[in-house]
Design brief:
Structural class of chain B: alpha/beta
Largest sheet of chain B: 6 strands, mixed
Number of domains of chain B: 2
Helix content of chain A: 55-70%
Number of strands of chain A: 4
Largest sheet of chain A: 4 strands, mixed
Strand content of chain B: 25-35%
Distance between the termini of chain B: 30 Å
Number of helices of chain A: 16
Strand order of the largest sheet of chain B: 6-7-8-3-9-10
Strand content of chain A: 5-15%
Shape of chain A: elongated
Shape of chain B: globular
CATH topology of the largest domain in chain B: Rossmann fold
Distance between the termini of chain A: 25 Å
Oligomer: heterodimer
Largest interface: A-B, 29 and 36 residues
Number of strands of chain B: 14
Order of helices and strands of chain B: EEEHEEHEHHHEHEHEEHEHEEHEH
CATH class of the largest domain in chain B: Alpha Beta
Radius of gyration of chain B: 23 Å
CATH architecture of the largest domain in chain B: 3-Layer(aba) Sandwich
Helix content of chain B: 25-40%
Strand order of the largest sheet of chain A: 2-1-3-4
Radius of gyration of chain A: 28 Å
Order of helices and strands of chain A: HHEHEHEHEHHHHHHHHHHH
Chain lengths: 375, 306
């Protein structure tokens, strides 16, 4: 490996990027745009659920209960009705997503120390929102019955379980979805950007006919691949820094761990992602095919199989095994760990090792599959 | 075999069913300008790519600069300079940036690099345009810059694939002066062309047609020995009509500018025959004479016979 050759290739690639507005935009604007678009679009916080109240009791206590719902901020009462069939109509038309039905004799039962039933109907066609809504429902009712118990009748006190459950959520105490979406999103975006950045570089030289001159020189394959990788590595790191800064300042995600460790491990991930792009560029030989392969082979796995959208533990076994081949999965774990838990290298050793292995294998494959021949 | 700059035997390259180069055997001595001629698609570029280590031959063997073309293509690449048919420098880089890049590729550094950069800029007449973006240069300058970038490392052998195609006549002439200069300094030049006037500048020639070499020798040899026939130059007021008239009577001619060339066995017999034919056909003959055949006459004849 001769340094003079690698340096010449690095310099040349930087010139190409600098003089091509499209490359520049892809390198620096695209990640920022994606982060904003997805950062705003994907929010799992459910607020202001439209709620219809069917209160047959009409007592002080039933009104207190409903007030508990609307004051939680998660529910907004849009309709009140005394007709049962109205509930169905509201849910069906989409005017409401949740219906709370308080039976007649609700407050009487409580005062007697009985256990009144409260019926809650949730529109399950959006199952994700529905399950979150159900969580809020039990939260609100739980608080309601706790509030009652000291002043409530003896019966309520007896009913209390002997275990006093006090839940505390660590690492994301407010359960703010952007706290775990943004680090994950950075992993997904960087997986796509890294492969996309390098996917054009080799194919472009074949298409423009400059490759023939280049491979007639004594340049070694490893020198060429390394020289092509370095400029995009620098750009990739800049993208990571920009994304992290946006995450912390704009989306107010706390960065608990070391920024240096975050950059170091991002470098390991970038090495693999950029090498994958180069490998694709070498195999595809045309820019359009290369960029599409790069897009599909990184975005879909990173989005669906990395644990970003769906928890890996809940996937069927064959798919779960497949996720081990998705480097974004490890990067996602690393980013979430450093951002939210302040994880150290010791904790992330396995992920780091696997990312290093992925990078080394793909880099070696890229060098191997490049041929200094015309056909 | 070792004394030759280029020496190949029975070189062959298939592309599926198609045999692009078939049974090509040739050798080039150091310092020689070797012209590789043939129409488009005859196998010139395929051969040159195999010699430069850019394409694996299907069959045959050989050496370039003493290195085996099959086993040591990367050693060959250190020894040679190659200028491909299509302009293949970076259009978005400036003149100086292209030179810098290829200096790096050939490992030319320091004082040597400054010296060679200066030489290339001067040779290509680009000293005043070093910061010009290459894509905006006129064809002749591009060509010379491409040549300069291919020989930054002062290779002993250079391969030029149709270096002057699409370049104006004055630039072509300048280009050949450069090639002469390098050959004079001991560099072996292997050049492909389909310009017959350029073929005259070469020390030795090989004519390739449909993948096979159909004639070889010095320009003089080809014109003398290979050409047993005589060429008659015909000047008529209506060239096209004259050609048609002669064709009807079984005399084949080829157009050279506004003249016709007829290749015949015996001038003494054929000249009166042609005069008579044209008179009968109502074509005014303004001149007719026996001439020394040009290389083009030779190749037209050889290709017709092949």
């Amino acid at each position: 490996m001769r340094l003079v050759r690698v340096k010449a290739i690095v310099a040349k690639e930087f010139i190409h990027i600098r003089r091509d507005p499209l490359s520049l935009a892809m390198a620096f604007l695209m990640p920022v745009m994606l982060l904003f678009i997805f950062g705003y679009a994907i929010t799992l916080d459910v607020r202001d659920l439209r709620t219809v109240v069917h209160d047959l009791d009409g007592s002080y206590m039933s009104r207190e209960l409903v007030r508990g719902f609307s004051e939680s901020g998660y529910f907004t009462v849009v309709e009140t009705t005394r007709v049962e069939s109205e509930i169905e109509r509201s849910l069906e038309s989409g005017r409401a997503m949740v219906a709370i039905s308080v039976p007649e004799g609700f407050s009487r039962d409580i005062k007697r120390g009985g256990r009144p039933t409260l019926q809650v109907v949730v529109d399950g066609s959006d199952s994700n929102t529905a399950s979150i809504a159900l969580g809020y429902v039990s939260g609100v009712t739980e608080r309601f019955s706790q509030r009652l118990s000291p002043v409530g009748g003896r019966g309520a006190g007896e009913r209390k379980s002997t275990v006093d459950l006090r839940t505390r959520v660590w690492y994301n105490p407010e359960l703010k979805s952007s706290n775990f979406i943004i680090p994950g999103l950075i992993a997904v975006i960087m997986a796509v950007i890294a492969a996309l950045l390098t996917s054009l570089t080799i194919a472009r030289e074949w298409e423009r006919g400059t490759m023939e001159q280049l491979i007639s020189t004594p340049v070694k394959k490893a020198e060429l691949i390394t020289g092509k990788l370095i400029p995009y590595f620098v750009i990739g790191l800049v993208d990571v820094v920009v994304s992290v800064v946006i995450g912390v300042w704009f989306f107010a995600v706390p960065l608990e761990g070391s920024a240096v460790l975050l950059l170091a491990l991002s470098s390991v991930f970038l090495f693999g992602g950029l090498s994958l792009g180069l490998l694709i560029s070498i195999v595809a030989k045309t820019q359009i095919v290369a960029s599409q392969i790069a897009m599909v082979s990184t975005f879909l796995p990173a989005f669906l199989l990395s644990g970003f959208m769906y928890a890996v533990e809940n996937m069927p076994v064959p798919i779960r095994i497949g996720t081990y081949l998705v480097p974004a999965r490890y990067f996602l774990t690393i980013l979430k760990g450093i951002f939210l838990k302040g994880s150290t290298l010791g904790v992330l050793a396995l992920e780091t090792a696997l990312l290093t292995a992925f990078g080394a294998v793909v880099f070696a494959l890229a060098i191997r599959s490049f041929k200094k021949k015309v056909f | 075999m070792g004394e030759y700059s280029v020496s190949v035997e029975k070189l062959r390259r298939d592309f599926g069913e198609f045999v692009a180069v078939d049974d090509v055997t040739l050798s080039v001595s150091p310092g020689e300008i070797f012209g590789f001629l043939g129409p488009n698609g005859a196998g010139k570029s395929t051969t040159i790519r195999m010699l430069c280590g850019l394409l694996a031959p299907t069959g045959g063997s050989g050496t370039v600069g003493g290195h085996d073309i099959i086993k040591e293509p990367e050693e060959i690449k250190k020894t040679i300079g190659y200028m491909s048919q299509k302009f293949s420098l970076y259009d978005d880089l400036t003149v100086a940036e292209n030179i810098d890049f290829f200096s790096g590729m050939y490992g030319v550094t320091g004082k040597k690099k400054r010296e060679r950069t200066g030489w290339v800029l001067e040779m290509a007449g680009l000293a005043a345009r070093r910061t010009t973006v290459t894509g905006t240069l006129p064809g002749g300058f591009k060509q010379r810059l491409a040549l300069g970038c291919a020989i930054l490392h002062e290779p002993r052998i250079i391969f030029l694939d149709e270096p002057t195609s699409g370049v104006d006549p004055v630039s072509r002439r300048n280009f050949w002066d450069l090639i002469y200069g390098m050959s004079g300094a001991g560099t072996t030049v292997f050049v492909t062309t389909h310009y017959m006037d350029e073929a005259e500048y070469c020390n030795r020639l090989a004519l390739i047609y449909r993948g096979r070499i159909i004639a070889r020798g010095t320009p003089g040899e080809l014109k003398g020995e290979q050409m047993k026939k005589t060429v008659i130059e015909i000047r008529a007021d209506d060239t096209v009509k004259a050609m048609e008239t002669l064709d009807e009577r079984g005399i084949e001619t080829a157009v050279f500018g506004n003249l016709l060339h007829a290749t015949v066995d015996d001038a003494g017999e054929s000249i009166p025959e042609i005069e008579k034919a044209l008179r009968q056909g109502g074509v005014d003959l303004t001149g007719i004479r026996k001439i020394v055949p040009s290389l083009e006459d030779v190749f037209v004849t050889l290709i017709e016979e092949a």
